[in-house]
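Treating backbone geometry as a discrete language has practical consequences that deserve illustration. In the encoding step, the backbone of a single protein was reduced to a row of integers, each denoting a local shape. The amino acid sequence and the backbone structure tokens for this protein are reproduced below.
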Amino acid sequence: MLMMLKDRIDGGKKLSERVLHYKGEPGLIVLGLPRGGVVVAYEVAKALDVPLDIVVPRKVGAPFSPELAVAAVAEDGTVLYNEGLMKELGISVDDIDETVEKEKKEAMRRMDLYRGDRPLLDLKDKTVLLVDDGVATGYTMKAAIMSVRLRGAKKVIVAVSVIPSDKLLTMQEISDAVHYVLMPEIFYSIGQFYEEFRQVTDEQVIEILDTAKKP
């Protein structure tokens, strides 16, 4: 039977053990994906004794099923379309154009809210650890990877508490390494592998970033 994680803090602590070999690597920085991923990322950054910041990609849901990601928006406004799934569902770019624009605005709102007046980090030649509480479709993480590569990151490492087995190869192909705690064969949602998976608030994210080690 596959183990369960108590909560995101537990997920972060267990994930930290999988990435401890990066400790001391020059130019290492941890970026959490809000909101839930920031809780996990805080534990990882603390264990590695490196700065914590955020990257804010947004999932674009299908018109009839908002939880089903058919695209993702990077924080710089770049859109990554899941063309195969869109074709399968009979969805065109025009069908989700309004949602894409809404998610672009939400990404910018969250960046302003969470980061305040802190300048955008210079990622050029940095090793970036992208941390989330789990991967489902993978499109939000793909957008995050694309975003940090565009900003000049030298190495991009994916570190997540939960990843379904059928998404591992995809993540490995587009990143430099993937680390995880749980890799279930049967997967319905990230939350099914946490005993407690309540919504993380904007206020919690801001508080964590204020507490974390600054770049």
User: Anything to note?
Assistant: The chain has two domains: 8-56+119-211, 59-113. The chain is about 40% helix and 20% strand.
